[in-house]
Amino acid sequence: MADNRQEAEKFTPILSAGFYPVPDSYPKYLSDGLEIKQTKRRIYLLVDSIFVILTVGLTLWFAGLLLWSGMEFAWKSIVVLLLFWAVLAYLLLPRIHQVFTTLYVPDYFMARTKTGDGLLGDPVNLALLGEEEDIHAIMAKAGWVRADEITLRSSWGIVKSSLTGKSYPNAPVSDLFLFGHRHAFAYQQEVDGSAAQRHHVRFWPTPQGWDLPGKQPVDWLAAGTYDKSVGLSTLTFQVTHKIDDDVDAERDYIIKTIRYTDPECKVKVLESFSTAFHDRNGGGDIVRTDGNMPILDLSGAAMRHDKANADEHEAKKAKDADKNHYRPAKLSTKQIMNETLDKTLPPPALGFVGFLTITAAVLTTVVLVLFGAVWLGGDGATLLAEDGIELLILAIAGYAQLVLYILTLKKYAWARIGLLSVAVVAAVSDLWAVTTGNDFHLTHLLPAAISLLVVLALTAPAVREWVSPRERRSGDLIGSVSQ
């Protein structure tokens, strides 16, 4: 993090002399190549990756069935084709991207972020010197608002904003990854109260001892873009924000708002940091940049201002870290409610799996109780013992899945693999039944669709990261290996 560097040391020369003396004899090849060991962790990640690839195959199978069922010309064909688009855009393409970006997109720093599926995201267009509280203090002072994390409170805020059309300035932003990590925090500005148009910038701390190319030390990197509208992604066909292609304009806007607020924030430019380029981000939007990297020095910004915003941030950090400290013996109802609303939620995909698992367990329990009541009441003459045994086996299987789900929530990686194995078997069974059935109907796809959604949810990058957080390539299959 930022230290007491002298002003002359903060902006270093681009080139160094290096150390390449003339050899006295013909050189020998010397390498420090790393040997990757097959640890238990590596084996788990390999098994996990196999499930991701299986998911792609199952989704292709289901999409093919959907497309085939919509071939006849009828009103239902429109519904089927819409369902096919949804499966393609939100289920199949993200998994295909996840597989191929892991294989073909390098993971070294190249001034680009990545989406959760591994696609290249927004360009990194700003570097900063300073502490985290300096960023929070100056951004708040300059009129920016911090984006909320995804919690019950923020989820309700999104729903309320969508239904009422009212502004939600602190709405969460989508996840982007750099150095194998999601952004630490983000700031944004709505334009005229419109949720479709906003300035936003995400921040990442740099790894310990990491320098920009050219040996320029920095403490933070940021990616700022301007959302100009909402539309369909040309790469994934999902509904998403469309950004202004001139990412340099947003970069310059961020710098100007900060320097207008605090002229003592110095800035220098690392020219030709990358070649000027035209490209597309993970949403399919065109991005172009001049290749320059401004380095903004925010050191001391928190001290120069009233520190109210920085202190608020520090208080929030202290509150989050207070789990091992003193807590009142009895919390008020309001305190309990606030803690619940502000608690970070598991990924929505994992919540979907939980809803289905709990619902199945409850329904099985109800049927089991009714069966027992009829049997014990003497009215079970028409009920066969085999029926009771079959129902009992289904109940045990359902409760076992519920236990696996609870352990998955508690971040046991093996429990997720177990739950995923059951889901894959169910999906294959349901898809095979639809494929080989003689009387095909659209409603026959429903059980297969639910089974497939469970598999997709459990292999989603967000769920994999929630259960087993690690240094990883965004969208990766196997992940990185700790040395």
UniProtKB/TrEMBL annotation:
Kindly state which keywords UniProt assigns to this record, in alphabetical order.
Membrane, Transmembrane, Transmembrane helix
- List all membrane-crossing ranges: 43-67, 73-93, 349-376, 388-407, 414-433, 445-463
Q: Which residues form the LssY-like C-terminal domain?
A: 104-293
Q: Name one Pfam family in it.
A: LssY_C
Coiled-coil segments on the chain, per record: none
Quote the protein name from its UniProt record.
Answer: LssY-like C-terminal domain-containing protein
Q: Source species, please?
A: Boudabousia tangfeifanii
